[in-house]
Design brief:
nine-stranded antiparallel β-sheet; alpha+beta; ATP binding; translocase; Calcium-transporting ATPase, cytoplasmic transduction domain A; 7 domains; P_typ_ATPase
Length: 1218
């Protein structure tokens, strides 16, 4: 294939696609138009369903550079096709013109591209994207992203900008001054409006899209056919069901769009101030922002309308929209390499690497701080859909398709039915031609056999069980916006849980402290707030070593710091704006104990007295703060007690790290044992240290000293023991899931230590299990990427003796000895950065880590989504339970996403729980399993219904007969619809069991079940059909022969009454018809009972009272009209009266049929095949096997017989339990 005609866009990224160029061909278009007319619009429908065909049959291949239409195909396993029209953006208008017409030109495509550097650079850059002669840029829009033609790359590409390839030096030197109005207008034209537009489709548009579903088109075809055959009643019933289904579907889809639109539009347009080149401040709408604009962050905060990098001042930001952690984060200005001597001038700016300096779209700036007379400024780096929030919304709007085996198998099964229908279609035509039947009748009868074989009521029948499950879920407080996902939840074998607010209550609680004196641990102390400890260095460290701040008079910050500070009961005071302005520098934060805690409280007196004694008050000023670093696992502050000459250094962090930075003689000898005791109990332990600094270190020197000079030679002071309280129901729910062989994984935005501690506490990791932390380092300075492995219980620097030899890791990944596995199991833990490095550089390790990874900490929203996809790639059915907007992508991508919040997360999540508790997870899986088994039952029943009726009609066609209209109506409405809608009512089984239902219809047990019942039904129907012909009283009938009726008295005498006034045109009233009608009517009920199974996934069918009553009433009615004929009923149903002896014979045939069917289904199948399929589940209550993949139900039947049909694409290795 010519390279010019096929290229790759977004190479190496998640949305990588192949791109092909096409030009419209007029003669092809004319032929297709003629074909559409000739096929009555059916060809147009086919082209609507298949965009690849639509482009190929109306266009000719062309060079991508000059094409009018592009055809896109994803490179993932789904290979999905899309097409887009290439448009032109004119740049002939001068860049200083900012008219409305220019804005309107870009309103249709929401710009997601970033700006170039300077005005002259911009012109050079634009030469790559535009043709000099016309000054027009060719572009197309796909999934809200604009792709422009790039002459340098000879390919379409979206514009890169300040978030890629721009150095930190360039940020300050080239972009900090702002844009001119002319350049702003030019960039606005190119990059479009800064908005994340979620358009709510009109009801008409949604209706057309829904109605053009292939199932509804087939139903329309069936209804038209039945109407021509005067079969109105059933046609009306199908129309009513379809209308109800379409209306409910439209309501759900539109409601979801409106919720997402409202969530995004809440803060989409605000007024912002931007700095221009001449230092003037201009107020504009946030929708007019472009990359390169310098935005002024207001003093009282704002909701960020874009992604921006802070270049001046400090901001306190709530990033719960991104991280799920409602902890205010302090953002500082990006270090200026030209000022900071230690900075690297060539370091490139990246929003992820420089998160502490980047304000993300959708996050809330609560408060700003700045030097005197200076504004807090940030440079816009990304706008629209390219922002962090925009990418989140895109993942909700355009999720990857979820591949569920049941639906793939359902389509395959329907294809088989279509094949059977084709045989019947050909047979009917040949048989009728040989018997010289009229052409009109041949067409109707041959098409009718198709509607019999592929039942139009199948979608409604399949939906019934899901609707009932949805109703039951609503009763237990679980709401569903994607009902089809309920079935998929029945297959979940792994559930990812967010931590904060999901498994645990928010934050940590202080359990106690254990101080050290003279290198020995004292007894644990529960109360820290006491007069005895108020002036101790231990309490001083707790009072100063934190990152707390006051927002509107309320203390805010990390929950751990907050709990520590609240435990000592001290008071924090920050400098006011006036004090900062007066001293021209940021004043230190001061902490002091309440007066009642001081040993020598000041005597009560007047206010003047208190002011006079103020110098005697004990207070500490925080002079310098070294923030917590997850890489260093510690934080440090320099503080000074009021009146002291020397300053103090206080440090807190991971106990092993702190102990390593202390004088060995100050660390107790039993330090490791005490620490291990606490960690094994699931406590989070923090160590404290202190040292007096030299008197030569003045305030100014401290501001410039490196943290390495401070953080050494410390005195070890003791431990703080924190407890992350689990929600009351968490351990019990996780135990239930483990007993059901459902793996649990924690994915959180919190730090590693807390996550591992909680995982142990809740039973996700057992006490005897080992946790290995994978720390992956990206390539740097010519060194290749590498992974350091070490045990979580002994977290130290990677070069310590606790590090694990990488060669030993593969041994720990695969356990051949199951006994050893029961003693010690290994779990892998990693943070988001390591996960990204492993995904990029260690692809071969990903499947193994997915099988054994239990804790994933510091995960960004997109990383959570990638984790879900990675788990799905090793054949897990993944559930995701979370409560924050940061979980949106993962909730949408997972097979079953459950939101515990009714805010942002519920928009993306298929399921939302009213109660913020993970107890909803087992409930959802139980209902999912019940709904899945109901779907299997209904599908099997509908398949048998089709084949039984198909065979009945085929037998009768052989004698030029058929079932009568009211016979069809009685079977279709009175039996089938009643049975289908009542057999779906079985509630879920009361507890989760270790077995899982098979994931697809093409499994040995299910195939055997369907095929055996088909053979049994066909056998007994054929027996009745041919046996009746052998009877002495049998009379053959033909079309237009006079209908005959035989009335036989109980004493055996018979009289023949011929109705000579009504010739039977369609040859309905004959002995074969009556025999086949009665036997087939009973067969529908027999297979319904045989397929209605209960335990272990559903309640027994005898508890389904509606089903039991319906079946008994139908049995009684059919038995009654068979054994005791009623003239009026016989006339309506076109039944002939047969001798009483034959009625008893039919009853015996039916009873034998029932015995054989139920014996084969419920005894042979359950006792032999079912146990073979589920034998894996007898291996123990709380043990995962290492030898079987999670989808064991895909047995050798499928692999042998249908692997070519189902597994045509290359698949990842199957997941194995750990």
């Amino acid at each position: 294939m010519d390279k010019e005609e096929r290229k790759i866009i977004n190479q190496g990224q998640e949305d990588e696609m192949e791109i092909y160029g096409y030009n419209l061909c007029r003669w092809k278009l004319a032929i297709i138009s003629l074909g559409v007319v000739c096929t009555g619009g059916f060809l147009l429908l086919l082209l609507y369903w298949m965009p690849e065909w639509r482009v190929k049959v109306t266009c000719v291949r062309a060079a991508i550079k000059d094409c009018e239409v592009v055809l896109l195909r994803t490179t993932d396993e789904f290979r999905t096709w899309f097409c887009a029209k290439v448009r032109f953006l004119s740049l002939e208008t001068p860049p200083f013109s900012s008219s409305k017409s220019l804005v309107n030109k870009v309103l249709n495509g929401h710009a997601v591209h970033l700006t170039e550097n300077l005005a002259e650079e911009n012109r050079l850059e634009m030469n790559k994207y535009s043709q000099p002669q016309s000054q027009q840029i060719r572009y197309f829009t796909h999934h809200s992203m604009k792709y422009f033609w790039n002459d340098t790359l000879h390919n379409f590409d979206f514009l890169k900008g300040l978030d890629e390839g721009v150095s930190c030096t360039s940020i300050y030197e080239k972009h900090s001054a702002g844009l001119t109005k002319g350049m702003h207008a030019y960039r606005k034209l190119l990059y479009g409006v800064n908005e994340i537009a979620v358009k709510v489709p009109s009801v008409f548009k949604l209706l057309v899209k829904e109605v053009l579903n292939p199932f509804y088109i087939f139903q329309l075809f069936s209804v038209i056919l039945w109407s021509t055959d005067e079969y109105y009643y059933y046609a009306i019933a199908i129309v009513i069901m379809s209308v109800v289904s379409i209306i409910s579907s439209l309501y759900a889809i539109r409601k979801q769009y409106i919720m997402l639109h409202d969530m995004v539009a809440a803060h989409s347009t605000v007024r912002v101030s931007v700095c221009r080149v001449n230092e003037e401040i201009e107020e504009i709408f946030s929708t007019d922002l472009v990359p390169g604009d310098v935005m002024v962050i207001p003093l009282n905060g704002t909701v960020m309308p874009c992604d921006a990098v802070l270049i001046n001042g400090t901001c306190i930001v709530n990033e719960s929209m991104l991280t799920g952690e409602s902890v205010p984060v302090t953002k500082t200005n990006l270090p200026n390499p030209s000022v900071d001597m230690k900075g690297t001038r060539d370091e490139l700016y990246s929003p992820e690497t420089h998160r502490r300096h980047t304000l993300f779209c959708g996050t809330t700036v609560i408060q700003t701080r700045f030097y005197t007379g200076e504004l807090v400024k940030a440079i816009v780096v990304r706008t629209g859909f390219s922002t962090s929030k925009g990418q989140l919304v895109r993942s909700i709007l355009y999720p990857k398709p979820t591949d569920f085996k049941l639906y793939r198998d359902a389509y395959l099964f329907l294809l088989c039915l279509v094949g059977v229908a084709a045989i019947g279609f050909i047979y009917t035509i040949i048989n009728n031609i040989l018997n010289e039947v009229e052409v009109g009748d041949i067409i109707i009868e041959s098409l009718d056999i198709i509607t019999i074989t592929v039942p139009p009521a199948l979608p409604a029948a399949m939906t019934a069980g899901i609707v009932y499950a949805q109703r039951r879920l609503k009763k237990v407080g679980i709401f569903c916006i994607s009902p089809q996902r309920i079935n998929i939840c029945g297959q979940l074998n792994l559930v990812c849980f967010d931590k904060t607010g999901t498994l645990t209550e928010d934050g940590l609680d202080l359990w106690g402290i254990q101080r050290v004196e003279n290198a020995r641990f004292l007894l644990p102390e529960e109360k820290v707030c006491s007069e005895m400890l108020v002036k101790s260095q231990f309490v001083a460290c707790m009072a100063t070593c934190h990152s707390l701040t006051k927002i509107e008079g309320v203390l805010s910050g990390d929950p751990l710091d907050l709990k520590m500070f609240e435990a000592i009961g001290w008071i924090l005071e920050e400098a006011t704006e006036e004090e900062t302005a007066l001293h021209n520098r940021i004043m230190p934060t001061v902490v002091r104990p309440p007066k009642q805690l001081l040993p020598e409280s000041a005597p009560a007196g007047s206010q003047e007295m208190e002011l006079f004694e103020l110098p005697a008050v004990y207070e500490i000023g925080i002079v310098r703060q070294f923030p917590f670093s997850s890489a260093l696992q510690r934080m440090c502050v320099v503080a000074r007690v009021l009146g002291d000459r020397k300053m103090d250094a206080y440090m807190k962090g991971a106990p092993e790290v702190i102990a390593g930075l202390c004088k060995p003689e100050t660390v107790p000898v039993d330090f490791e044992k005490v620490l291990e005791d606490y960690t094994k109990q699931g406590f989070r332990v923090i160590a404290l240290a202190h040292r007096k600094l030299e008197s030569k270190l003045t305030w100014h020197k401290v501001q410039n000293v490196g943290r390495d000079a401070i953080e050494n030679n410390m005195d070890f002071m003791g431990l703080i023991i924190m407890q992350n309280k689990l929600k009351r129901e968490t351990p019990a729910v996780l135990e239930d899931l483990h007993k059901a062989n459902i793996r649990t994984v924690m994915v959180t935005g919190d730090n590693m230590l807390t996550a591992v501690s909680v995982a142990r506490d809740c039973g996700m990791i057992l006490p005897q299990d080992k946790v290995i932390i994978a720390e992956a380092l990206p390539p740097k300075d010519g060194k290749v990427a590498k992974i350091n492995w070490h045990y979580a219980d002994t977290i130290t620097q990677s070069n310590d003796s606790s590090a694990i030899d990488p060669e030993a890791i593969p041994i720990k990944l695969v356990h051949d000895n199951l006994e050893d596995l029961q003693v010690t199991r290994y779990h892998f833990a990693m943070n988001g950065k390591s996960f990204s490095v492993i995904l990029e550089h260690f692809q071969d390790l990903v499947p193994k880590l997915m099988l054994h990874g239990t804790v994933f900490a510091r995960m960004a929203p997109d990383q959570k989504t990638q984790l879900v996809e990675a788990l799905q790639n090793v054949d897990y059915y993944v559930g995701m339970c979370g409560d924050g907007a940061n979980d949106c992508g993962a909730l949408k991508r997972a097979h079953g996403g459950i939101s515990l919040s009714e805010l942002e997360a519920s928009v993306a999540s298929p399921f939302t729980s009213k109660t913020p508790s993970i107890s909803c997870v087992p409930n959802l899986i139980r209902e999912g399993r019940a709904a899945l088994m109901t779907s299997f039952c209904v599908f099997k029943f509908m398949a048998l219904y089709s084949i039984i009726q198909y065979f009945s009609v085929t037998l009768l066609y052989s004698i030029l007969s058929n079932l009568g209209d009211f016979q069809f109506l009685f079977i279709d409405l009175a039996i089938i619809l009643v049975v289908v809608f009542t057999m779906s009512l079985n509630p879920a089984w009361k507890e989760l069991v270790a077995q899982r239902p098979p994931s697809g219809l093409i499994s040995g047990a299910l195939l055997f079940s369907v095929l055996s019942q088909i053979i049994i039904s066909i056998g007994f129907q054929s027996l009745g059909f041919f046996w009746v012909k052998q009877q002495t009283w049998y009379k053959e009938s033909h079309p237009y022969s006079y209908a005959f009726n035989t009335t036989e008295s109980l004493d055996g005498n018979s009289s023949h009454v011929d109705d000579e006034t009504n010739p039977d045109k369609h040859n309905i009233e004959n002995y074969e018809n009556t025999t086949v009608f009665f036997i087939s009517s009973f067969q529908y009920l027999i297979v319904a009972i045989a397929f209605s199974k209960g335990k272990p996934f559903r309640q027994p069918c005898y508890k389904n009272y509606f089903f039991v009553v319906s079946v008994i009433m139908l049995y009684a009615f059919i038995l009654f009209i068979m054994l005791h004929p009623v003239d009026s009923i016989d006339q309506v149903l076109q039944i002939v009266c047969v001798p009483y002896q034959w009625r008893i014979t039919m009853l015996i045939i039916v009873l034998v049929n029932a015995f054989v069917s139920i014996a084969v289904e419920n005894f042979f199948l359950d006792m032999v095949l079912w146990k073979v399929v589920f034998s894996r589940d007898k291996q123990g209550e709380y043990r995962f096997t290492t030898t079987q993949p999670p989808q064991e139900s895909m047995d050798w039947w499928e692999k042998c017989c249908l692997s070519w049909a189902l597994n045509c694409r290359k698949k990842m290795p199957k997941a194995k339990y750990i």
